[in-house]
């Protein structure tokens, strides 16, 4: 049977600590994930001069994190949404072209009206109409 003193006095033992009293979690780095090891907890008591208390050796192994979950997503109606977005783009382009043509026609109509008014006013002034 292994005792806490066997673990503490072993040359291969690694001391980790002391840890602050408010710590809830700790990690020991670089321990192979498939190996088992012994843990002995040491508790320092107050007031000064009290002997430390050691736990019985605890055989444990490294906690290996699980594989990340496989997540997939299938959106209902995704194809319909893509078709609608394409149609909206088409209609937006047509609207913009029609707006451009309309503005251009309005400019042409205004300039034609102005030239006709100018001609009429000139012909009126000259007595021809």
Unreliable runs, pLDDT <50, ≥5 residues? Answer: none
Mean pLDDT: 78
- Provide a count of the helices: 2
Radius of gyration based on Cα positions: 44 Å
Task: Tell me the total number of β-strands.
Answer: 4
First-last Cα distance = 127 Å
Tell me what the structure shows.
It is a single chain. The strands form two sheets. The protein has a two-stranded antiparallel ribbon with strand order 1-4. A two-stranded antiparallel ribbon has the order 2-3. With 129 residues, it is mainly alpha-helical. The mean pLDDT is 78. It has two helices and four strands, in the order H-E-E-E-E-H. Helices cover 43% and strands 9% of the residues. It has two domains: 1-63, no CATH class; 75-129.
Note the main attributes of this structure.
129 residues; mainly alpha; two-stranded antiparallel ribbon
Q: Secondary structure elements and their pairing?
A:
Layout: H1 4-9, E1 36-39, E2 42-43, E3 53-54, E4 58-61, H2 78-126
Antiparallel strand pairs: 1-4, 2-3
Short description:
This protein has about 130 residues and is mainly alpha-helical.
